[in-house]
Design a protein that fits this description.
Layout lengths: L1 E2 L3 H5 L1 H11 L3 H8 L7 H20 L12 H6 L9 H21 L10 H7 L6 H10 L12 H31 L9 E3 L2 E6 L9 E6 L6 E5 H32 L3 H27 L5 E2 L5 E6 L2 H9 L7 E5 L3 E7 L6 H16 L11 E2 L4 E5 L12 H15 L4 E5 L8 H17 L3 E5 L3 H9 L2 E10 L4 E8 L7 H8 L3 H11 L1 H83 L4 H22 L2 H6 L29 E4 L5 E7 L3 E6 L2 E6 L3 E3 L7 H20 L3 E3 L5 H17 L4 E5 L6 H10 L5 E6 L9 E6 L1
Parallel strand pairs: 1-11, 6-10, 9-13, 9-14, 11-12, 12-13, 21-22
Antiparallel strand pairs: 2-3, 3-5, 4-5, 7-8, 7-10, 14-15, 16-17, 16-20, 17-18, 18-19, 22-24, 23-24
């Protein structure tokens, strides 16, 4: 139950309903908006809200919803239920376009195979719609894309229109001849052109010459200076045109009647589908309003409950937004232990706005609209909402302001129960304060006994004391800036508020002696009590500000710590990369240097240390060293690589490369080239040459240049290559993306690309990948799917959802 009858006007919901109506794009949605009403059925309210929230998700996603042509065809279709009636060409065109829109809406919400729908509540709603493709196709056979009846709508119509064209061409030829002759004879003006009068072609002639041109006078201009004559030569042709046009009109009626007869059996189903289309339009309008106001989906409960965070009155929000101002949001909680909130505070401090905000937020939710609050809020259901706000005096009913309040209180006491929400403004006002306060306290006690929920505003001290001492009722205050003497419009729950009567009187400029006399009249107890309330509000505001400052500092500190940790992690990562890069570069330099040194030594030995050749080789080595210094700036590493004479160290143990007693070299012996340290293994030996494996490199060397060693051949090259291969695989895995775009490729190129792509996906344990091939002629799609049928690791494949690309994308699920 909603009380009073003008409840929506009192809380401002009529303005919101008007805002929703403005966002509907058709009378279909407008009708549903006008019928929007308060509901106490939890499943219904939950369905309304979820439908709106799903459409809000569509809007936020940026998806283009196909609600292009929505026409209200209900009256037109109902008029066509009588046999013999027919739809006009315009109505046929509107019906066709709206049926195409319905088909597009059904496609938007369709799901593929076993996939669950993205928007289940909207999907369930539109599943009751029908597309009627046969009707749309039949209309398209008689109407073109601009809504005009086609010439080939029937063979007879084509013949008749062809006749019109031929006769019109004949008339034009005759008229051109008559006009040319008339201009030559001076009977017609030089700029004379044929015109149309009563559907017949005529010539404009000056009154002085009207007897000189044989024909029928059809009309004359308003000034009387021009007479319109139909020449005798074209009278018969004009008659033929008029007769043909009448036949065309009869044929068009026959065509429209025939098509309407085929539509008539489906009119009831069409009306049901159009009603659902109107619901979609209405839901879209609610979602648009929610998007513009920042409204969100709260947690719903099938019991009385109010746990709201950052609640805002939508009408006030829209009004202040136009003025460039912001609304102060409201947060409050009412539950089974704390059901009634008693708000006190100064006048113009926001008490009534707070009251209306509670009413409109709850009413919006139970009308199926997303409320303006944070999505972590919790909202319950109420079976009744009663409001007593403003002056309801009535001359006709002989009711004063206070009498009307008492009438409302009587209804509240009689109808109020545990699932009732009451909203009372200026409780107890309108009569003598002492008895008014006493009656108000007695009524509040009864309402609390009935376990109703409510928000009540008052100035009475006795009600503040009663709320403080009574379970189920809690005090609240609208905060006031005592220093600047201005309201803050913030609700604080837990303590009563002061009316700031003395302070406001001083601010207005009331004489000080009047204020002092008033203070002495009420007594020191009242003044002290008001001061205590002011002190409580001041201290509470002070500590709330402190807590807010601490919270801000903690957030800043957390952000700084997070930023510091992030930078440390970045530095550590960068350091590792730099070290790794330096090591790789150093290893490369060492490998190149060792190779150059060994090659130099070998050339010196091969040249048997000829003086000139040795100088030349050393010169090449110096040039290589200089190049290293210039390219990498690594002088220290080069200095270490300089050839140095070997010195005998008496304390150094004998070298492990000391050859074993002389015996012929055999397959399997570990050897080194004389003058080098790289160990190889002999694979085979013939008279003077041996085949030696240095890692992965095999070479044929004279046995005289080899020395046996007890060192073992290292597997460095193989391990290094294995490590490089692992690094390459790891890099490919990190860079792997589950999407590939092959649009524009030839079939063989696409097959090869998909082969590598699917192999990587299976190797890297990807569960699902997407292949973007486009629609086009469908060749790429066919070739890809033929290949996928041959791959064992492919579990299934299908088209992407129509919202995300449809048949232009193939989704592949891997085992």
């Amino acid at each position: 139950m909603i009380y009073p009858s003008n409840f929506e006007q009192k809380i401002g919901f009529n303005t919101i309903r008007h805002e929703i109506e403005k966002r509907c794009i058709s009378p279909l949605g407008l009708t549903h908006c006008q019928h929007m009403q308060f509901s106490t059925h939890f499943p219904t309210v939950s369905l309304w809200l979820n439908q709106t929230n799903e459409f809000l998700t569509i809007i936020n996603s940026g998806a283009e919803f196909p609600l292009n042509f929505v026409f209200d065809m209900r009256a037109t279709l109902k008029s066509a239920t009588t046999p013999g009636t027919f739809l006009s060409v315009e109505s046929m065109f509107n019906l066709q376009r709206s049926l195409n829109t319905i088909s597009d809406v059904l496609k938007f919400f369709s799901s593929k195979g076993d996939e669950s729908p993205l928007y289940p509540n909207l999907h369930k709603l539109v599943s009751e719609m029908q597309a009627f493709p046969a009707i749309a196709d039949e209309i398209s056979t008689i109407l073109d894309k601009n809504g005009n009846l086609k010439d080939n709508a029937s063979p007879l119509l084509a013949d008749l229109r062809r006749t019109i064209t031929q006769v019109t061409a004949s008339i034009n030829g005759i008229l051109r001849r008559i006009i040319a002759q008339g201009k030559t004879d001076g009977l017609l003006d030089s700029d004379a052109q044929p015109s149309m009068r009563d559907g017949r072609l005529v010539l404009p002639v000056a009154p002085a010459h009207k007897r000189k041109i044989k024909g029928i006078v059809h009309d004359e201009s308003a000034s009387g200076k021009t007479v319109f004559i139909e020449p005798d030569e074209i009278v018969e042709a004009n008659n033929r045109i008029r007769e043909t046009e009448a036949e065309i009109a009869r044929e068009i009626i026959r065509i429209l009647t025939a098509v309407t007869d085929n539509i008539r059996p489906y009119i009831d189903d069409l009306l049901g589908t159009y009603d659902i289309l109107g619901q979609i339009d209405f839901i879209r309008a609610k979602a648009l309003f929610a998007h513009e106001t920042g409204s969100q989906m709260p947690h719903l409960h099938n019991k009385p409950l109010i746990e709201w965070y950052h609640a805002t009155h939508p009408t006030l929000f829209l009004s202040l937004r136009e003025q460039g101002k912001e609304v102060v949001p409201l947060s409050l909680q009412l539950d089974s232990k704390q059901r009634i909130l008693l708000i006190s505070g100064p006048n113009a401090g926001g008490k009534s706005v707070c009251l209306k905000t509670v009413g409109i937020i709850q009413y919006m939710m139970q009308c199926g609209m997303l409320p303006m609050l944070y999505n972590n809020s919790h909202m319950g259901m109420f079976k009744s909402i009663f409001i007593d706000i403003g002056d309801q005096q009535s001359i006709e009913d002989d009711l004063s302001t206070y009498s009307s309040h008492l009438q409302n209180m009587k209804l509240f006491l009689n109808r109020g129960a545990g699932e009732t929400l009451i909203l009372i403004d200026e409780f107890g006002g309108g009569t003598e304060p002492q008895i008014g306060g006493a009656i108000a306290q007695a009524i509040l006690q009864q309402l609390n006994h009935k376990k109703v929920y409510g928000v009540i505003t008052t100035h009475y001290q006795n009600l503040k004391h009663f709320a403080d001492e009574t379970e189920g009722i809690v005090n609240g205050a609208m905060l006031y800036d005592r220093q600047h003497m201005r309201p803050l419009f913030q609700l604080s729950v837990g303590y009563p508020g002061s009316s700031f009567a003395i302070e406001i009187a001083r601010k207005i400029g009331l004489p000080s002696d009047v204020i002092e006399q008033a203070s002495s009249i009420v007594g020191s107890d009242y003044i002290n009590m008001d001061k205590y309330l002011l002190d409580i509000v001041r201290d509470r505001k002070y500590w709330e500000n402190k807590r807010h400052e601490i919270h801000i500092k903690e957030k800043k500190l957390d952000a700084i710590v997070e930023q510091y940790n992030s930078k440390l992690a970045t530095i550590a990562t960068t350091q590792k990369e730099i070290i790794k890069e330096a090591r790789n570069e150093a290893r490369s330099i060492l490998d190149n240097s060792n190779a150059q040194i060994e090659r130099t030594i070998r050339e010196i030995r091969e040249m048997q240390a000829e003086k000139e050749k040795t100088k030349e080789v050393r010169k090449h080595l110096d040039e290589f060293k200089q190049r290293l210094e210039n390219d990498n700036g690594i002088t220290r590493d080069v200095e270490k690589l300089k050839l140095k004479p070997r010195r005998n160290n008496p304390n150094k143990p004998a070298s492990k490369t000391t050859p074993t007693p002389d015996r012929p070299l055999e397959a399997g012996d570990n050897v080194v080239l004389k003058g080098t340290t790289t160990v190889g293994t002999i694979i085979s030996v013939d008279e003077k040459y041996a085949t030696v494996a240095f890692g992965m490199l095999k070479t044929r060397v004279e046995t005289s240049k080899l020395e046996r060693t007890i060192k073992k051949a290292e597997k460095k090259t193989t391990l290094s290559m294995s490590k490089e291969a692992n690094n390459e695989i790891r890099a490919r895995q990190l860079n792997f993306k589950p999407d590939i775009d092959i649009r524009g490729m030839r079939a063989d190129e696409a097959t090869q690309a998909i082969t590598y792509f699917i192999d990587d996906a299976i190797q890297f344990n990807a569960k699902r990948v997407r292949i973007l091939h486009g629609t086009g002629t469908g060749i790429l799609k066919t070739v890809i799917r033929q290949y996928l049928d041959t791959v064992n690791g492919v579990k299934s494949y299908r088209d992407e959802h129509v919202q995300f690309g449809g048949a232009g994308i193939t989704i592949v699920d891997l085992e």
